[in-house]
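Thread: Newbie trying to understand structure tokens

Hi all, I'm a second-year student working on a class project, and my supervisor (Dr. K.) asked me to get a predicted structure for one chain before our next meeting. I've only ever worked with sequences, so writing a 3D structure as a token string is new to me. If someone could post the tokens and maybe explain what I'm looking at, I'd be very grateful. Here's the chain:
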Amino acid sequence: MPINSTKIDFLNELKRNNNRDWFNENKPRFQDVQLEAKAFYEEIKQGLLQFDDIENFKMFRIYRDVRFSKDKTPYKPHFAGSFSRSGKRLRGGYYLRIRPGESFLAGGFWTPNKEDLFRIRKEFEIGDQEMRDILKAPDFKRIFGGQLEGEELKTAPKGFQKEHPAIDLIRKKGFIAVRKFSDKEVLSPDFLKEVLFSFQTLGPFFDYMSEVLTTDLNGVSTIE
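---
Reply by user tm_fold:
Sure, no problem. This is what the structure looks like when written as tokens:
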């Protein structure tokens, strides 16, 4: 089921009327478009299963937690879902957000734990050529701009040299590839195909990072 203007129209209206009274009056509409959105995300999951092993799919609630936020609007004017890769052998995950004017997909490693982050940084310290080759591959450059996004330190992490040739990778706290979409692209009948092709393009990146995170610096497996 493709994304249609009904969903985008509802999200635009919600953005303009982000309050409980309007939402409650329009809850039947929300429930209809939510069901359609869930069906679309389920199609993505089924497509992912054709080339990857997905352990978990989560569609995020539209309700915002405003307890610690300056923004007190109660609802998220978007749909979003994540897909986690399976088990200890495969790492990372996929994400898609549909929001008028601000839709994007992403794949990678949002917040690696302390041990994983150190292991990744040590790999880049030893050699970064394999990752550079992945980033400059034609499809990766065309779809993701040939770069990784994510939070990063302003300087070198403790124990690493700030002059290291791979310091741009070593400073990162997350390793995420991002592709943005216009509303026209979201509403295109080819949107699902583009999402899945983008995710499939991440294959070499995920293979490399999963191998790093399941071996020690000598290449010996750390999982049973």
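A couple of things are worth pointing out once you decode it. Residues 27-48 form the longest helix (22 residues). Residues 116 and 213 are 6 Å apart (CA to CA). Feel free to ask follow-ups in this thread.
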